[in-house]
Amino acid sequence: MKILLLAFISVLPLVSSGLEELEYFQEKHDKSFEGINPLDTYKDPDQFYTAIAKNLGVHTIAFDAVRNEYGWEKKENEIFQAIVRRSTGLWVIMVYRLEFSPETKKTKMESMVTRWVKIDDELKVIYCGKEQNETNNQNKSVDVTP
After folding, report:
1. Fewest CB atoms less than 10 Å from the CB: which of 5, 36, 79, 121?
2. ∠ CA(60), CA(64), CA(66), 5° rounding?
3. Does residue 56 have a pLDDT over 90?
4. Extents of the domains making up the chain
């Protein structure tokens, strides 16, 4: 029992050290964030960072990057969305689009295409690139030997 407790205590600072608080974003961007609570009030840190990202316009920056780089535009019968995650000092956004059938209202997963965008804390795009669609790679084997 003592060994487990010591291991937990030694990992705890590593887990909490990567999280940025509301004050960090307020100071960094010289603005207040209305309606956003401190990080520790959220059940999931992703909810906090998504609220910050929306307030900063990170989604719009990512959509603009994909539009400029690949010519993506929202089309009829197509879903065009983004998922934002936070890494220390970096926003990582998966922008994706996929078709859906207006008759059945079901998405066509085989049509899914993704692009990855990385945005730094200055809100500058530092990467906009392709990522293989995992549904197309299900039957491929990957050599992981060194």
Report:
1. 5
2. 120
3. yes
4. 19-132
Q: What is the dihedral of CA 82, 85, 91, 92, to 10 degrees?
A: -60
pTM: 0.72
Q: CA triplet 112, 116, 121: central angle to 5 degrees?
A: 150
The reported pLDDT for the residue numbered 145 is 32
Sign of CA dihedral 87, 27, 53, 91: negative
Count the neighbouring beta carbons within 10 Å of the beta carbon of residue 11.
10
Identify the pLDDT of residue 96.
Answer: 93
Number of CB atoms found within 10 A of residue 63's CB = 21
Which amino acid does the sequence have at 37?
A: N
Q: Alpha-carbon distance 20 to 53, whole Å?
A: 13
> How is residue 110 annotated by DSSP?
G
- Segment 40-47 long-range contacts (CB within 8 Å, at least 24 positions apart): 45/19, 45/86, 46/85, 46/86
Cα–Cα distance between 19 and 54 in angstroms, integer? 18
The answer on pLDDT for 106 being more than 50 is: yes
Beta bridge partners, 99, equal: 78
